[in-house]
């Protein structure tokens, strides 16, 4: 949608929506997949970062919530660490969500709302991660998973209870979609606005970069931009693959097993007869008698059925057992007892009286044990492979539950351990450029990057044949910059390009100043002395701007619609390839009066957002009602600790 709709989404309404969505995700993550939650021990104690009514948000609450949210995001972005999360504003978002959740809970209780223990019990019991082999809630498994991640039952219950309060108070309001026509009119008119302008362009490649950089210049540039030359965290992934080949010795069926399978499934290999049958089902016996009489008199059963307003169906290649399940045993006996071309019936079936004709009979010979042996071997091999893989996996999981190490598991199960080079979360190996991970290895790398230092090895499914890998984390190389000596040529190239970009920007600003003073853009560009492209016209409506979202044309159009008439601004080109100078020459205001289609469209677009705005205002009022106070020093201290500890 248009930029003003995007601004609505990114405004305070968006904050509350984010709280609701991520709140639900956090609860589902914390309770639904406890095995992926980051460890939560340690941190600040006894320090309150905020007071919300009669409740408090402690530093430990905030720290835990931030760690959990990073862990949740890392399911999709394995390379995300705490520093990146905080730099992107995630820490502040977590704090606001903690406060908003607590405020809604406090408000709900003040209004007499209750979240019963039974309701929380039901939600916990319904979580798949806590179900045992019988599909029922397993209290022992629940406690085991909580212990693995240093969580308590009280923490899980508190999160579920708070989330339930938030949902009960806000979800009905989010669904509000009504928006008055008169209120939609100005937005609809805005969509019809049109603008014209002109665009000049100064390519960086045309601008001289100046004198060659000195060693001191290179060193200074490297120091200021060291993040460009910093490698992300890399991990050596240790793994051992368990696939059908690894259990082949246990999966080969013996002659006795093959013979027993043949005897047990003898009906599959016995001689059988298949028939093509045309049949008609008639509700009453009198009608069925008349239909059967016509068919036995030589009339086609299908034609006789159509004449009676009925429709015949055809069963091709049906055996007696399959046919009996569709009709009835009595009908099957009659059909398979008749000769080819014979008409039977009427016979009472499950849905009425059946009249049928045997169109064709095919005799299917049986198979001896020798003839059936290849397919029996294939079937038994698959079964024994699946059983052996399952047995191996269960044994390994039991060992890991008993705190066995990767090396102990590999030695005990006589597996072959392998390692990757030091790889990033995306599977790149900076020190081994030729390394190209397979899809199976990518799954293992992703799993390794979701683990914390010191975590037990994981079981990672691979392929479609029941295979899996035991995955552990070897050496962890923390994020660090490459030495200047290793990247000097790249630094030199970047410095030269940066100087050219700076020079291009200086020229663009000079052109901008002249254009805003009234000089024609073509003349201002000519005075740069560069062979720049000619000035080109630009014209669009706000609908064009909406259609251009996520395309290269989006940024210039957005700038065109953000300036007053006869004013110009500069805009960086993608990949720092140059600078645009964009000037608005004409603005045609839109008028949607009488344009029912435009107004309906605007009402629909805004209606999808208005409920969120109501929730935003409600949440703000709730915060004011319960009274919220924050301690900036305690917040800063917690933020600093998360950064300094490198929590991820």
TrEMBL record:
InterPro entries for the chain: PPIase_dom_sf, PPIase_PpiC, PpiD_chaperone, Trigger_fact/SurA_dom_sf
UniProt KW keywords: Cell inner membrane, Cell membrane, Chaperone, Isomerase, Membrane, Rotamase, Transmembrane, Transmembrane helix
GO cellular component: plasma membrane
Gene3D superfamilies, per the entry: 3.10.50.40, Porin chaperone SurA, peptide-binding domain
Example of a GO MF term: peptidyl-prolyl cis-trans isomerase activity
Annotated compartments: Cell inner membrane
Domain annotation PpiC: ranges: 272-360
Chief localization: membrane
Membrane topology listed for this record: Single-pass type II membrane protein
PANTHER family linked to this entry: PEPTIDYL-PROLYL CIS-TRANS ISOMERASE D (PTHR47529), PERIPLASMIC CHAPERONE PPID (PTHR47529:SF1)
Family under the similarity heading: Belongs to the PpiD chaperone family.
Protein name: Parvulin-like PPIase
């Amino acid at each position: 949608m248009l930029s003003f709709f995007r601004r609505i989404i990114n405004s305070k309404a968006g904050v509350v929506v984010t709280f609701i969505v991520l709140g639900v995700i956090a609860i589902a993550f914390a309770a639904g997949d406890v095995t992926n939650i980051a460890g939560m021990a340690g941190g600040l104690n006894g320090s309150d970062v905020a007071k919300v009514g009669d409740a408090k948000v402690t530093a430990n609450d905030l720290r835990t919530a931030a760690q959990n949210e990073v862990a949740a995001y890392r399911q999709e972005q394995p390379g995300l660490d705490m520093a990146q999360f905080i730099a992107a504003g995630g820490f502040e978002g977590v704090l606001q969500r903690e406060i908003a959740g607590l405020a809604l809970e406090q408000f709900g209780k003040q209004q007499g709302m209750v979240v019963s223990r039974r309701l929380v019990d039901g939600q916990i019991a319904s979580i798949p991660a806590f179900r045992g082999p019988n599909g029922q809630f397993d209290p022992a498994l629940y406690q085991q998973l909580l212990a693995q991640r240093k969580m308590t039952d009280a923490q899980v219950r508190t999160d579920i209870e708070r989330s339930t309060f938030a949902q009960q108070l806000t979800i009905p309001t989010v669904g509000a979609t009504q928006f008055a026509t008169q209120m939609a009119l100005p937005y609809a008119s805005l969509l019809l606005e049109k603008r014209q302008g002109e665009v000049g362009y100064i390519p960086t490649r045309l601008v001289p970069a100046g004198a060659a950089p000195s060693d001191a210049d290179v060193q200074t540039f490297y120091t200021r931009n060291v993040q460009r030359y910093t490698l992300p965290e890399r991990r050596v992934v240790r793994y051992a693959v368990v696939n059908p080949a690894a259990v082949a010795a246990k999966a080969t069926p013996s002659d006795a097993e093959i013979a027993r399978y043949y005897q047990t499934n003898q009906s599959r290999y016995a001689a059988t007869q298949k028939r093509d049958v045309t049949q008609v089902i008639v509700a009453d016996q009198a009608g069925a008698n008349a239909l059967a009489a016509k068919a036995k008199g030589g009339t086609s059963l299908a034609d006789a059925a159509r004449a009676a307003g009925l429709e015949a169906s055809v069963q091709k290649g049906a055996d007696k057992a399959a046919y009996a399940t569709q009709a009835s045993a009595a009908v099957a006996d009659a059909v398979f007892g008749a000769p080819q071309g014979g008409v039977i019936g009427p016979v009472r079936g499950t849905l009425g009286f059946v009249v049928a004709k045997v169109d064709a009979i095919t005799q299917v010979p049986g198979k001896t044990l020798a003839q059936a042996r290849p397919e029996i071997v294939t079937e038994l091999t698959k079964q024994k492979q699946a059983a052996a893989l399952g047995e191996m996996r269960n044994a390994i999981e039991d060992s890991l539950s008993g705190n066995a190490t990767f090396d102990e598991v590999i030695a005990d199960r006589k597996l072959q351990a392998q390692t990757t080079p030091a790889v990033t979360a995306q599977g790149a190996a900076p020190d081994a450029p030729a390394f190209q991970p397979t899809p199976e290895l990518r799954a293992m790398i992703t799993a390794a990057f979701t683990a914390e230092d010191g975590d037990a090895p994981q079981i990672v499914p691979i392929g479609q044949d029941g295979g899996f890998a035991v995955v552990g984390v070897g050496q962890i190389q923390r994020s660090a910059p490459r030495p200047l000596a290793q990247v000097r040529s790249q630094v030199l190239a970047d410095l030269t390009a940066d100087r050219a970009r700076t020079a291009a920007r200086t020229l663009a600003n000079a052109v901008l100043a002249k254009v805003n003073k009234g000089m024609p853009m073509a003349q201002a560009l000519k005075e740069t002395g560069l062979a720049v492209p000619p000035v080109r016209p630009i014209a669009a409506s706000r609908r064009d701007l909406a259609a251009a979202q996520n395309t290269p044309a989006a940024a210039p159009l957005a700038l065109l619609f953000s300036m007053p008439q006869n004013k110009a601004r500069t805009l960086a080109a993608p990949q720092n390839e140059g600078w645009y100078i964009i000037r608005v020459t004409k603005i045609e205001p839109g008028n949607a009066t009488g344009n029912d289609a435009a107004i309906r469209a605007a009402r629909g677009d805004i209606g999808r957002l208005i409920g969120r705005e109501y929730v935003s205002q409600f949440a703000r009022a709730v915060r004011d009602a319960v009274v919220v106070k924050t301690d900036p020093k305690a917040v800063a201290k917690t933020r600093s600790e998360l950064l300094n500890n490198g929590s991820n």
